[in-house]
Amino acid sequence: QVNQEMSDEVYLTLAGWYQNIYRNQDALIILKHAPQQAEILYWQAYLLSKNNDSSFAAVLAKADQSSPALVFPYRTQAAKVMEWAMQNTTSWKPKYFLALIHWNAGNIDKTKSLFQQCGSPDYVPFYAAKASLFSEEEEQNLIKATQLDKNEWRYGKLLVNHYINTDKVQQALTIAIDYQKRFPNNDGLSFLLARCYLLNKQYANSLKVLTGKTFLPNEGATEGRQLYRESLLMLTFDNMDKGKYTQALSSIEKARLWPEN
Questions:
Q1: DSSP string over 73-95
Q2: Could you count the other beta carbons within 10 Å of the beta carbon of residue 96?
Q3: 3-class DSSP state for residue 67?
Q4: Residue 31 in contact with residue 11, Cβ under 8 Å?
Q5: Cα–Cα distance between 259 and 240 in angstroms, integer?
Q6: How far is Cα 59 from Cα 131, in angstroms, rounded to an integer?
Q7: What's the rounded Cα separation, in Å, for the pair 45 and 213?
């Protein structure tokens, strides 16, 4: 038994080595002791088929029903497994897994073609991945991801960043406010909300977010300090335009500080 993180990768490496020297039965023995996740099950079905073992159909059906979550095939050796599976099942998963293999190899055109062949599966990460592949469909895929899984903050963050990058700052702010309310303890979303307020020229609201809670930065992180400084300096310009020079001077002095929170 393999006792380490991502043990399934160890089993796949060993099984692949035995399969390369035409020891399919030994590869099968190894995989039967491995975690029964989708890629491993497709491998088992493929090897059983090569051994003319009719039980491959039951294993293939089990693979089709298995969750693709946290399964990321990347070995070029696995491409033939997924190509075989595509010929023997109507499930979208072999196409998706084969797309990941080609994506890892830099074959973007083939990756896009396989993603299009997958149809519309009920698997949320699929749409987040598709959003990064098809820039012209990025918004609709991220919206679909946020609709399918309202308990995952990462899809909301991706959608907000998409709107920021496409200069749709009002839409970005609307989504950022919603997600920060739903995930109030998420520092990343709070920073993102502060940035959205800043881009919408709501400098006081940006400062309110930044000064209203304590952020625990990761090592070397400077985002909070940068947002704080930029918000105050932009507020300075805003006060200067309105002839409020005393407030402008005060904002400049605050911008020099490094607030403990």
A1: ---GGGHHHHHHHHHH---SHHH
A2: 24
A3: coil
A4: yes
A5: 24
A6: 32
A7: 53
**Residues contacting 142, CB < 8 A, separation 6+:** 127, 128, 131, 155, 158, 159, 162
> CA-to-CA distance for 164 and 142, rounded, in angstroms?
14
pLDDT tens column, 49-74: 999 999 999 999 999 999 999 999 99
| Structure token pair of residue 136 | 């012209």
In angstroms, the CA 40 to CA 19 distance is 13
Report DSSP letters for 160-205, one per residue. Answer: HHHHHHTT-HHHHHHHHHHHHHHSTT-HHHHHHHHHHHHHTT-HHH
Question: For the segment 186-232, what is each residue's pLDDT rounded down to a tens digit?
Answer: 999 999 999 999 999 999 999 999 999 888 877 778 888 999 999 99
Query: Rounded CA gap, 31 and 169, in Å?
Result: 50
> Rounded to an integer, what distance in angstroms lies between the CA atom of residue 125 and that of residue 133?
13
